[in-house]
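Format notes (please read before filing issues)

Several people have asked whether sequences and structure tokens are stored in separate files. They are not. Every record keeps both together, in the order shown below: the sequence lines, then the token lines. Line labels are part of the format and must not be stripped during preprocessing.
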Amino acid sequence: MARLALAVLAASAMALRPATTRVARAPTQRNLFGGAPPEEDTPASPPPGQGGQTMSVPGLGDITEEEMKLAMEFRQKMAQKMQETRVEGSALGGKVKVVYDGQGQPSSVEVTDAALGEGADKVAQGVVDAAKQAQGEALVKMKAIMQDMQKDIAKTLQADMK
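Then the structure lines:
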């Protein structure tokens, strides 16, 4: 279960495929040139003693269905927190505002008429400054969310070991 923290990160970064074993058969005229395989060609059941389906995670090997469910649950919670996160950067005394989401992407820019009166160069620099400020704050918040999620995973793993 210690691999769960890595599984959460892997689940966030890539699509996971169930580990399956196919029965090797000689090609038939029906499936030699792209036809459908015979209906009896189904994935093999898991090896005896494994007690359930496993998922293959690149770099981690096989994890159990239970570990995968827990990883996906944490991934969903993290995605929700990231989606709800909004940070704002401002410049020119609040006349220029840039909002970033919890994934470090700009979501809106607001430039007041008063800012426009200061000229294009100042507005352009104000947008850059506000964006840098918002992006920096978004990165700090994303890191805090990840650290909180790691603490939650550790607590869950400790509770499962008892």
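For reference, the curators noted about this record: The beta strands are 17-18, 54-57, 61-64, 86-91, 96-101, 106-111. The longest helix spans residues 120-161.
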